[in-house]
Fold this protein.
Amino acid sequence: MHPKSVWFRPMSTRFNLKISGLTIAVCSWFLLVANVPAQAPPSAASLTANPVFQKNCAKCHGKTAAGRRFGGPSLTSDKAASTDDVRNIISSGKGHMPKYGGKLSSEEIDTLVQQIKLLNQK
C-alpha cells in the first residue's frame, strides 16, 4: 500500500480511528486521575502506625495510645480536648510531657493532632 493511502480511506474509517484515539486518551486520563492518591484523612489506626508517634509518643502513651500506668495518659479518652488544645500540648508540653514544638515540624504536629482527634471520634 502506498503511505498516502491512509488519508484516502473512506470517511467512516478515519472517523473510527479518531474515535479510537479519543477513547484511548480519555481512558488514559481517567486512569491517571484515578490513581493519584487523594489526600484522605488519616485513619485512627494510622496514629499507632505513624513513625513520629512510635518514636516520640509511644514510650509514654503506649504503643496502642491507651496510656501507660506510670506514663502518659490515654489518647483515646472520652475527654474532648479541642484541636487547638491538643496542638498546644504537643507543641508546648504540659505537666510531665515535654514540648515538641522545636523537635517536630508543624506538619508532623498537625498530623498527630488529626490522628488523635480521629481516634477519639470512635
In short: The domain at 45-121 is CATH 1.10.760.10 (Cytochrome Bc1 Complex; Chain D, domain 2). The chain has a mean pLDDT of 78. The two ends are 70 Å apart (CA to CA). Residues 11-35 form the longest helix (25 residues).
